[in-house]
Amino acid sequence: xxxxxxxxxxxxxxxxxxxxxxxxxxxxxxxxxxxxxxxxxxxxxxxxxxxxxxxxxxxxxxxxxxxxxxxxxxxxxxxxxxxxxxxxxxxxxxxxxxxxxxxxxxxxxxxxxxxxxxxxxxxxxxxxxxxxxxxxxxxxxxxxxxxxxxxxxxxxxxxxxxxxxxxxxxxxxxxxxxxxxxxxxxxxxxxxxxxxxxxxxxxxxxxxxxxxxxxxxxxxxxxxxxxxxxxxxxxxxxxxxxxxxxxxxxxxxxxxxxxxxxxxxxxxxxxxxxxxxxxxxxxxxxxxxxxxxxxxxxxxxxxxxxxxxxxxxxxxxxxxxxxxx
Length: 325
Hints:
Structural class: mainly alpha
Strand content: under 5%
């Protein structure tokens, strides 16, 4: 069955499932493949969850399941939270090997750590056997304390690129390189576990986003960043790379415009003839045939230079809705 999509689709955004990736391979389609960034970032975070983090997740999951499956335990915990003046008295988030949910759970645990320890030592609400099974080791508390700030940044990136409205493909590579060059770089006060986690996530994200590939400058997401005034300076690319690509796109647009205008001109001539066309188009008659001729391609470098010299708008600027007449 023919869907008539050839030439009408420039790129397809999809998840990272193997069958979907295969379906969007160059051998099958003539558009560019753009894996979902939020999903790709999540996979990179999962790659960073090595043995020591996985153990914390398992322990946290065991504790969460206990409260979710035991109404008396849940009610007793909520009562203690009220007694201790906790603002959030809800039960813990469900835990999966998932950065977003893990960081939410870690925040819960860190805020209620002392309360949980007292809860486990209260034999009126927790049996000794349950306490031994559920109590989280001091080592695990330390891991959560160290790694949660890193995960908060990754959660922020995931949230921005997962919202239902106003998500722009132009944000993908600026966020990617900001994570790689800033947030996932080792800090002076990072412990060995955080350093290892950052390194693994950084390597995985770099590989998955193909940041070292020669064809990076031609990827649809990066082209969108070139054309977004907020990101056009792209500090992670060399000036020559940016300007060369913009000049190339400008030249391609000029050539496409010329071809379109020539096609329109031929169609008009075939339908009505040169004399009739001149009479029906007063502006064309007055201003001459070459008035709207496309500029020479040599104008492109100058146009790119002007575009790059303009200061980018602030990231704090909010898009204002268009007024209705």
